[in-house]
């Protein structure tokens, strides 16, 4: 037994594959820019690297207003934290690079105490020319140093990093590193997790290092790493420490090859590992699991490092690797991959956000076969966040304001939008300061108060403001706003504003259905000629409105201001208000999946208003009649009629109570203070309407039932919300999905704004509810297919599912197979004798 093994080893040793560990020269980066921001003299780190002052470095800092601060004491973890530079306006560091390719970009933040600014509360964004690195970032109560580390492929010699403070806030930075990374570090090829497939194109992404772990080993600081990286121990991420054991050998046991050099990871990583705890003393079959907190809206690359330093002989260790519960590597056989023990190996696995509903988990475990040693190992793990479709690494919006939700980057709207605003988005949208509205704005019977986001702007933004009134065509063409319609054109489109074309009536004028050009239907909103609002304000507001472009906001097509008319032309939403599809109109009921999709769309629109490029817009009148559906049932938020900007820092707007009864935030009602959390409250009521299919307020009902929010929350607290859901949903709604959804509604309806989630949080809860529903439907149809093939019956095979019933908790519901024709779900109710029917076919597919 030992002899053939020895032979094998000799054979392998003589092959050229394993050359005796080649002495790799340390990597010397071509670009190695280290800046100690705000410093008066350079700082040298324990690892020997010297951070220069801004003046010493050849890089260019462009800023109008900045402040240098420093702390005298050496009471900071590193000399680079002794100083910081604070920006109250957009600032840019411009770098001249000598070599294209991947670069480390490391941003060091340490909120040092100073008399100028509370840096813990400073809120700002950081972007390069291409990538969004941080979106509305805030250190918050974190008093530790924060390192944000990126790996970006820079293709132009000029590279800049922009710091953009939020309105009335500041940005700050303590130190910046821009350092070339070796080409061999990033390979273009990886493996997609689910379904397992090869993945190419990894070099097209930007990355943020989310985690970098040295399994079973010590902390490795920048001075001990080949590329200045930091590797932290894995113990804090282990789900059950009792199931794992650490193991290490001397670093010289690690045998690098000419492909796998210490550049990939230092020997300290490969010479230690975490393995299964001694299997003899326990049930032999278990997994070692790690769990990571990640932003689940992004895709990730997991670089998994392995090195078999535990086996006594080759071909003895085989194990499985799982990511998010899915098989990532089946029967990993390091011996056959490396040919020798102690030879490092890594694998890049691309993990799609769609598999990440419960965060990121990594597991290693034995194969189920009774062969070989029962063990599994992992030596190191790097979790890299991948840039999304709009090149953002934080938040859904790209540098030019386009949203990842748009799907493709190249839509006409997005391009036009980028051209329109690119000029100053590049320099930071925050340069523009929107003034607050005059206090009496609501009293004006104004057009803007009817359907526009209310904003005034200062003249630094509107260069041609002085000439606005008299040269309107110049004004529009110079700012590239939507299409200009002549009054005659719109007269023709609406049959001279015929009353039969009216599809909506507002306090400030009517909405007409019109047909333009090739038959495109549009909604034409014509301001009441008696409106006191000036034409100048109208124009200002169109400008603001056209800034808001999002798949889930009703978009402005054009306008007409001829003869002092104030007319806006919007896309026509053929399926009308969401509410009409929930109750009162006898339309075909929407499936639960459709309701979830529509709710998600509306949440996205509101999230964009709150956090998107225009920043801090509060809708103020969120309700099911302001969520419109297009011909494909895509939800779009309409009627920013009462919108008002939320000044940053101040966090609320004092204002007279407006909005719709039944949807009003109680805090807003009491204190007359408006925040984006007021919209969240109203959205909570919308969610209940979606679930229960009844109005927010119904005065005809017994008193305790009049207010939907109060009534439904009573049932929710009793844990019996399923008793009051829309009967059409019974039998087709997954109880877990409903639970998640009702929880989201409950959180939105919290008494105090601070306790309510953000729209972004609500969004993720809804997405999760949708996933649960989809898994449920999928599971059911598989089950049905099985039953069907097993049953030779002519009639549809009934399949029991777990129902949600308004009158009894565990009532069997029988559901025929789903097919293309109309089908029914029949709930058999022994008590009432009423069978419940729900039409669901033809709805779920939309
Ligand atoms: C920071 O704030 C959060 C909640 O606001 C709290 O849970 C946490 O303990 C705080 N951390 C520190 C270090 O104060
Ligand atoms: C960086 O991107 C460019 C352009 O997409 C590509 O040609 C190049 O190969 C990339 N560099 C690396 C090191 O992957
Ligand atoms: C890191 O490097 C220093 C100096 O080279 C050395 O003294 C120390 O032992 C190293 N630490 C580890 C964990 O390798
Ligand atoms: C290990 O985890 C995977 C994925 O979660 C699971 O399918 C498998 O059954 C687990 N193995 C053991 C032995 O528990
Ligand atoms: C993740 O999945 C989505 C939807 O299937 C796809 O559009 C996206 O390209 C995937 N991401 C990666 C990195 O493959």
From TrEMBL:
Residues 497-769 form the Protein kinase domain. InterPro entries: Kinase-like_dom_sf, Malectin-like_Carb-bd_dom, Prot_kinase_dom, Protein_kinase_ATP_BS, Ser-Thr/Tyr_kinase_cat_dom, Ser/Thr_kinase_AS. This is Protein kinase domain-containing protein. PANTHER family: OS01G0750732 PROTEIN, OS05G0423500 PROTEIN. Keywords: ATP-binding, Glycoprotein, Kinase, Membrane, Nucleotide-binding, Serine/threonine-protein kinase, Signal, Transferase, Transmembrane, Transmembrane helix. The keyword Ligase does not apply. Residues 1-20 form the signal peptide. ATP binds at residue 525. It is found in: Membrane. The chain crosses the membrane at residues 412-434. GO terms for cellular component: membrane. It is a single-pass membrane protein. Residues 808-821 have a biased composition (Basic and acidic residues). CDD domains: STKc_IRAK (cd14066). Residues 803-822 are annotated as: Disordered. GO terms for molecular function: ATP binding; protein serine/threonine kinase activity. Gene3D superfamilies: Galactose-binding lectin, Phosphorylase Kinase, domain 1, Transferase(Phosphotransferase) domain 1. It comes from Rubroshorea leprosula.
């Amino acid at each position: 037994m030992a002899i053939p093994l020895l032979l094998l080893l000799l054979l392998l040793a003589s092959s050229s594959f394993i050359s005796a560990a080649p002495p790799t020269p340390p990597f010397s980066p071509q670009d190695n820019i280290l800046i100690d921001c705000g410093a008066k003299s350079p700082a040298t780190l324990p690892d020997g690297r010297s951070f220069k002052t801004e003046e010493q470095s050849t890089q260019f800092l462009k800023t109008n207003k900045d402040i240098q601060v420093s702390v005298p004491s050496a009471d900071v973890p590193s000399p680079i934290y002794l100083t910081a530079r604070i920006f109250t306006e957009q600032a840019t560091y411009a770098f001249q690079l000598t070599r294209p390719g991947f670069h480390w970009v490391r941003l060091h933040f340490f909120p040092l105490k100073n008399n100028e600014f509370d840096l813990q509360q400073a809120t700002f964004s950081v972007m390069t020319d291409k990538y969004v690195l941080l979106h509305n970032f805030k250190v918050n109560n974190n008093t530790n140093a924060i390192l944000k580390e990126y790996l970006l492929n820079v293709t132009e010699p000029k590279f800049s990093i922009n710091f953009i403070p939020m309105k009335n806030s500041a940005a700050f930075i303590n130190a910046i590193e821009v350092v070339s990374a070796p080409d061999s570090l990033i390979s273009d090829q990886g493996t997609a997790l689910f379904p397992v497939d090869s993945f190419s194109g990894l070099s097209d992404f930007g990355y943020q290092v989310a985690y970098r772990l040295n399994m079973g080993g010590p902390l490795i600081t920048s001075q001990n790493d080949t590329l200045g990286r930091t590797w932290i121990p894995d113990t804090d991420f282990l789900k059950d420490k009792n199931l794992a054991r650490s193991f290490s050998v001397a670093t010289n046991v690690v045998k690098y090859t000419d492909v796998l050099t210490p550049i990939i990871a230092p020997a300290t990583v490969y010479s230690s590992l975490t393995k299964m705890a001694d299997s003899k003393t326990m049930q032999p079959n278990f997994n070692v699991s790690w769990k990571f907190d990640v932003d689940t809206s992004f895709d990730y690359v997991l670089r998994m490092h392995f090195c078999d330093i535990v086996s006594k002989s080759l071909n003895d260790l085989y194990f499985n690797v799982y990511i998010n519960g899915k098989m990532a590597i089946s029967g990993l056989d390091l011996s056959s991959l490396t040919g020798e023990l102690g030879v490092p190996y890594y694998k890049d696995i691309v993990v799609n956000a769609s598999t990440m509903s419960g965060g990121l988990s990594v597991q290693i475990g034995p194969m189920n076969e009774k062969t070989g040693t029962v063990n599994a190992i992992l030596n190191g793990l790097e979790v890299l966040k991948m840039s999304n479709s709009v090149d953002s690494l934080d938040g859904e919006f790209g540098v030019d304001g386009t949203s990842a939700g748009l799907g493709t980057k190249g839509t006409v709207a997005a391009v036009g939008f980028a051209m329109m605003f690119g000029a100053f988005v590049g320099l930071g949208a925050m340069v523009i300061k929107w003034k607050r509205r005059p206090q009496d704005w609501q009293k004006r019977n104004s057009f803007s108060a009817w359907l526009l986001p209310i904003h005034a702007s200062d003249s630094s933004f509107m260069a041609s403001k002085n000439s606005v009134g008299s040269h309107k065509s110049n004004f529009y063409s110079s700012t590239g706003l939507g299409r200009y319609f002549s009054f005659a054109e719109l007269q023709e489109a609406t049959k001279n504003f015929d009353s039969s074309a009216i599809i909506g009536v507002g306090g400030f004028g009517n909405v007409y259905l019109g047909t333009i050009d090739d038959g495109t239907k549009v909604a034409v909103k014509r301001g009441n000629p008696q409106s006191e609002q000036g034409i100048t304000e109208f124009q200002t507001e169109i400008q603001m409105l056209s800034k808001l472009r999002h798949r889930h906001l009703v978009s402005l097509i054009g306008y007409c201001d001829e003869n002092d008319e104030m007319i806006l032309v919007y896309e026509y939403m053929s399926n009308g208000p969401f509410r009409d599809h929930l109750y009162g109109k006898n339309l075909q009921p929407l499936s639960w999946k459709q309701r979830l999709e529509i709710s998600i769309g509306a949440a996205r629109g509101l999230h964009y208003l709150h956090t998107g490029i225009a920043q801090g817009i509060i809708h103020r009148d969120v309700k099911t009649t302001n969520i419109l559906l297009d011909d494909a049932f895509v939800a779009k938020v309409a009627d920013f009629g009462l919108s008002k900007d939320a000044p940053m820092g101040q966090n609320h707007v004092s204002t007279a109570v407006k909005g719709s009864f039944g949807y009003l935030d109680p805090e807003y009602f009491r204190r007359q203070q408006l925040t984006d959390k007021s919209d969240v409250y109203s959205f909570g009521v919308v969610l209940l309407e979606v679930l229960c299919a009844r109005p927010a307020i119904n005065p005809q009902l017994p008193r305790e039932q009049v207010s939907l929010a109060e009534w439904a929350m009573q049932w929710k607290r009793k844990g019996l919300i399923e008793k009051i859901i829309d009967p059409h949903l019974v039998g087709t709604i997954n109880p877990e999905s409903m639970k998640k959804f009702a929880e989201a509604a409950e959180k939105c309806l919290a008494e105090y704004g601070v306790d309510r989630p953000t729209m972004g949080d609500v969004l993720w809860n809804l997405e999760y509810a949708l996933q649960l529903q989809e898994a449920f439907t999928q599971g059911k149809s598989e089950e049905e297919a099985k039953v069907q093939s097993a049953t030779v019956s002519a009639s549809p095979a009934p399949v029991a599912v777990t129902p949600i019933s308004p009158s009894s908790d565990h009532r069997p519901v029988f559901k025929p197979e789903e097919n293309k024709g109309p089908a029914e779900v029949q709930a058999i109710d022994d008590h009432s004798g009423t069978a419940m029917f729900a039409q669901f076919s033809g709805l779920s597919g939309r």
